Amino acid sequence: MRILLVEDDRATADFISKGLNQAGLRCVHAADGLEGLIKLRSESFDLAVVDIMLPKLDGLSLIEEARNAKLTLPIIVLSARDSVESKIKGLEKGGDDYMAKPFSFAELLARIQALLRRASQTAEPTRLVVGDLVMDLLSRKVSRSGVNIELQPLEFQLLEYLMRNRGRVVSKTTILEHVWEYNFDTQSNIVEAGIFRLREKIDKPFDVKLIRTVRGFGYVLD
Q: Where are the beta strands (DSSP E) in the chain?
């Protein structure tokens, strides 16, 4: 999936781009509204994230131009303004969602994934399967090779996140944002401890190990 990020603040752009790339989404950055509009018209994207306050061409004008050009991709509006009037204006101009700064990257990613699912008309799965590991999202049960595995709520959330990103390396920071949100410092060993407990339950009793550590990057389940 290709995401266009139109954001003039370098720190914010780097933060979002890094997170999207770690989540397995290809992020293309444009530093001003005019560059963003040119990229939208000349390249193919699955979704755009557009800041309102942009040089050369403001975000609302960019979105309006994109809709006038019959571009139907989902667009998330970013803004430092949190008023109801600003949100309404952003949606009226053609935005599909609106997020006020500052925001949690985990929430932004969740909204992006929700819009991508809606755009592709893909139904949310009720079961996740990786090899002989099965997670039932409705009953909240996990089994491997037919053997039931009891997980604590945070262990379940951690495994669910790994299974939804099967085959992708997910960083410690991204796991913290998705499972623990911002309740722990990124220097703590809470993620390592969670991975250790999961391995004890879903890997140790079985011959084939599913969770791998990718040194210097994070973890992958495949």
A: 2-6, 26-30, 47-51, 75-79, 97-100, 127-130, 133-136, 141-144, 147-149, 211-214, 218-221
